[in-house]
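Subject: Cytochrome P450

B.,
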Amino acid sequence: MHAGAEGTTAPERLDDSFFQDPQGLFARLRSSSPVTPVITTEGVRVWLVTRYEDVRAALADPRVAKDWVAHMTPEDFDINVDPVQAYLDQHMLNLDPPDHTRLRRLVVKAFTPRRVAALRPRISAVTDELLDAMADGPAQTELIEAFAFPLSVTVICELIGIPVGDRASFRAWSETLLSSRGTRKEARAAAVAMYEYFTGLVTQRRTQPADDLLSALIAARDSGDSLSEHELLSMMFLLLVAGHETMLNLITNGTLALLTHPGELKRLRDDPALLPSAVEELLRYANPLNHATERFTLEPVTIGGVTVPAKEWVMLASASANWDPTRFPDADRLDVDRDRSGHLGFGHGIHYCLGAPLARLEGEIAFGSLLARFPELRLAVPESVLRWRPSSLIHGLEGLPVRLR
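Prediction pasted inline below.
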């Protein structure tokens, strides 16, 4: 990437200390350098934006763009972009209008509040099955393995039309592609495996269509409804990875937040009507993402009084914005009944999460059912021993051991 204007001090590095405590760095930068270059674990320089007002404005600024294939050249990078990963990455989340608008229109119907509400019985049934198995098992369990992962991946797989039996493969591929520690060879192998899997599945579903999103997108593609084969495959990649990763980590992070705030946990247990509000607060307080997916400047853009040169990568720290005390008083405190309107847990602007209605419904069912089934739920280990995944983008625990009774 372009070197751009150099600061007077060496940029911060997003190392393991960042993965384990991103809010610590965000708080420091909001006060001292709210728009500043940082170095990722891959050695790439990006501009990190940490204040609410700046992050929200940049998320809606068309000069801070997504479609790097259309606007960037090899000279704009200081790393090699793997062609397979680049192929899968060309989905609507990494596109600008008009392509983004066209692709979003094809899938948004699957995530309308009415369509999502129809999924409630199935989500509740899957949740109850998992909780039944936990209740029949040992008093201590690993919440990610027993509940958060199987629930999140089952819901999104059934919605899209992907065999749930392949979920272990999805998880391995996803974790590899989102890790900031893996090698380029490992990432490429995961991308190739995912590409080959989706190609085979699309071929199969063409001859055996079903009542699912994948079959609907294949029909749109084959009827000439402005959807290319490339776009179809990358759409599957986006929906699967984003759909299960965000919910897995919302359930896990949110459970940890509640268990470490017993007063708020009691409020929620005593008044289940607070569940919708609590889910929004958990999205603000314990969001699954540290930052929005990367953007770059099409031209020099002034953000928070700092001019970022053209063709520079920009990391908009939505998790930091959600903890900005100028927007949310006592932002570092969990409050299941706070006025959290305007939080950036689902982003902002044209890339606002189209899965938000599904995430809200799934969160309400997951947290409500888990807390009701296990009134003695508590951490099985000290919070200090928990580790966060080594990912700049994803804020998610490696494990969450809990005691059920």
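The domain at 12-403 is CATH 1.10.630.10 (Cytochrome p450).

T.
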